[in-house]
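Protein 1 of 2
SEQ + STRUCT:
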Amino acid sequence: MTVNTLHRPTHRDALVHLEAAIERGDLITMFGRCTVDYDGRATSELGPGDRLVILKPDGSILVHTDEKRTPVNWQPPGCTHTVNVRNGQLRVRSTRSNPDERLDVWFDRIEQCAAYAVNDRSDLELAGSEEDLRQHILADPSVLEVGFEPLETERQSDAGALDIFGEDSDGVPVVVELKRRRVGPSAASQLRRYVDALKREFGDDEPVRGILVAPSVTDRAAAMLEREGLEFVALDPETGKPPVETGEREEETDSAEDDT
């Protein structure tokens, strides 16, 4: 693996280094004094601080402080990274168009900048995946609810592919969205889009149920599901049964926890 590292580079030297690394598709890490501005579904500003910024070749960006395991700002895969120097600062910009979002990281000072030519094509073997959840439900639909009948998997709709499509004991269409880990509001929103897509297909007057299946759900997501008339069923991906209560409270995180 090739590694190119700059220690305390000037902004111009860092600019040349970063532009070449982005062009090559390298994994990039930067550490220094920066501010962060986000504009998209909301707006936010993060004042000056020493932070670690990671740019991945899949288009994702993570901004980490010296606390906690989750980034304070981030953008998902599929974004475009650009770099320039303005007003005596180095700006790293990450943008995407669907939805329209922009994340700017402004560096006053760069302590270290490294680019890694990473070769990692090994697939992560997951214990307890969404496919495991699907197979548990197909093998025993009653784990979802008594009388549920699966009809199709990966059924196409104008909002995307439905994990499981079926009917309940009264013949009402049911959309089942599967998640292998604790989920937040974005999973509830995704389920809402699928339900709305089927209502457009079947007719707005036809009832369609939506059930989100995951090991657990955040308070915000639970409130959203209730507000939208959607349902939640807790199942462990490994066992296909309700998770065992440990009495420990999980950290409430609603950003980027949902697989698409």
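Protein 2 of 2
SEQ + STRUCT:
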Amino acid sequence: MIAKIAIALSMTLSAGYAGAATLPVAAQADLVLPGTGSVKYYEKTGDPVRLTAYGLGTKRTYLRAATGNAFAWEKTLSEVSVSPGNRLTAGVPGSYRSGYDSLIVTDRTTGASTRIRTVKKPLTASYASWSRDGKRVALTVEQKVSGKWQVLGFTVVDVAAKTARTVRVAGLSRNAGFWWSPDGNLVSMYGTGLRAYRASDGAVMRTYAGVGLPTGPEDPFSPSGKRLTTWCPSRFKEQLCLVDPVSGKIAQRVNVRPEALLGWWNESHVIAVMAHGTAYRLTVLDLSGKATRVLADVPRTAWASDLWLSFTRVS
């Protein structure tokens, strides 16, 4: 969730939506997010996802306590994410140690941390994505080429074994990223669509041609795995597309234009950042594009600071 997440979250897909001021907040707790200026996250008991981490680019990363509402600044980490089940965290340090990048896995029940080497300098491995069973973490591997970051492949960390395996993948776009699919493959952008790679060796498992690019940085697959969100190809007027992973076809197009999409709220709603006046709102949208809930008002200054947010599904 570092520079690329900032890119994904700040895509200029400009448009607002009408009537947002009348939406229900339905809040049980107002979570003040330190370091953001004035952002409050409106949480309600029974929400299907929990805001567990956020940050401002690579400068500041905040982690929510395992219980309660307190967020703490993780000064040594450039990103952090919480595993399914809320027990483990995966953090990428802000600097190399002994010439290696690494992943720090922490057990929130015991407080014990393990540093697992990933790639050797000048490579970096970041943008942690947890597998749905919470056993592995995928990281995107990059290197600066002629002053620009170029994606070279991925690293898969086996949390229990405390090992990391890096796989180079040919033909990737410069700003590709990797996320787990529900069936345990890794998905990345490919041309004007997506491609699924086998996590063990990078073999191509499937190509979804012409369906649009993955929304990212949060899991683009619905909780059931039966839908996959993409940014619609340019041949359509709609911005958001829903792909059937079985057929590989676009099953639905949604006439809504988010600034960013931050994953699925539940099987029939997504979490989106929408333009609102001169600022933004974190909003729950149904699959017709209707806003049904306000989660946070986001000032323009906070958004301009590369604000990112990470959610963990409630069991």
